[in-house]
Sequence to fold (149 residues):
Amino acid sequence: MKRLAILAVPMLLSIPAQAEQQSRVMPLEQVKSILEATKDSWVAYRIYNGRQYYYVTHLLSWRCGIKQVRYSENSDTLDKTWPLPECNKLIPNTIPNDAKIHNTPGKIGSIRTLAIQLEFDDGSTSPVRIYEPCEGVGEATCGYLKEER
Fold:
């Protein structure tokens, strides 16, 4: 009986270690489906200390599966790319401390729209989506999807 218990302990200790090394990234089709269902949350604007910010935190949380985020301010030219941290397959939805989650602050009202298009790992793209800040929310974060093309 003692011998059996001794053999079982190393086996039990090795199971969590093996499980921790497995990728926890969802299949790409599921990531796309989640991003489509939550498209209203891709962008949030905020007024803070007399400056305007916009955040793409939601997209960073679902970056595993996103190859590139193209965007533009006040136009739909998509002339910029957002820096995405590398996908950590063991903890895919966490955002690293050094990730860029918002833009450099601008004057209040300087960013009227933000156009975003995602390119996924398989080369497919999302529609171009145009986001505007909510009016009159003070320092709360708020944005809404105005249109998509």
